[in-house]
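Much of the work behind modern protein science is quiet bookkeeping, done one molecule at a time. The protein below has been through that process, and both of its lines are reproduced in full.


***
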Amino acid sequence: MILLKFTLLLFVVIGLCAMVGSSGAADNKRQHITIRGIYGGMSTELFERGKTLKDYGINAVFIGSGGLTAERVALLKRQGAKVFAEFNTMHEAGYLKEHPDAAPIGVDGKVCPPPNGWQGICPTHPGYRKYRMDAFRAVLQNFEIDGIWLDYHHSHASWEQAVPNMPDTCFCNRCLQQFARDTNTTLPNKPTAELSQLLLGEHKDRWVQWRCDVFTDWVREFRAILDATRPGALLGTFHCPWSDTDYDGALKNKLAIDLKAQAKYVDVFSPMPYHARFGHPTDPAWISRQTAWLGKYLGIEGKPSERHKIWPIVQIADWGEPVPVSQVREVLDHGTRLPATGVMIFRWGALREQWAKVEEMGKFYQEIAL
């Protein structure tokens, strides 16, 4: 009897171990991850080494819209990859050379210097908006891409660093007049320096929401162009990975990013949790914490039936703080946890001289490939 009980117990233990092992293997496969991407340049280095994208588990490539050619798109598609374009919305600084009136105005009524060199544009400038919409339409017309991702779609601020620099803008006469008209707010006839304090004080909630609505309306127009020009393509956005309470609510209060409002038009949210760059060099788990927050905030669980997707872009290239080779797998591990259903690495161009990281990425991608 004792022997029989021991035998039964042994079978139970073995069965439980098998179940745990099977669960772990299934989890390691990350069957929910449908996109294993690279961002920031063509993968010609792989081809020059006699390799294919499949050899590294890559099935998606994100390229700046200015770097697209019909030949590059065709080559990547022959390799079995989806091709997505990255599109710069509010950071075309060259536009200001001939249109200085598009420069954002600060609280003092003067042109706001670019914070840490990051030059934004006034979001209500009609000429600039048409310029970007025309360029957006041209990308969709000229290239057989699977989707297009908005980038730099935020106010005049430098947030892609450990200590963000986020001045309050834009208080040009055009913005002030449009705000007053759109919100039915009567503004006194006072200097801009005084009006800015009024808008950041008594009228702050209304001002913040209006600014968010302006940026969201850009997204609405981008969506309309995409649907009319290349229906079926995805609209994504690369965006700040903060929660709604980080930096005193800066996501909306400073950057004018209203994720819930944009969700009406966007298919894929790609937060940018660059852990090393943003002050978390020894804490890759920050990546999965931020994507988990985003999923909860937007109601995205990572189910195949959901319209909205979360595909974070994670840092394995050095940018400011280095990312050691030994950390690549951990970064990708946290970047591929639900509710994420896709992932891409930042950034290919900088990895050309760090091939050991490419190899680690390839091994991880291969292991989780369906």
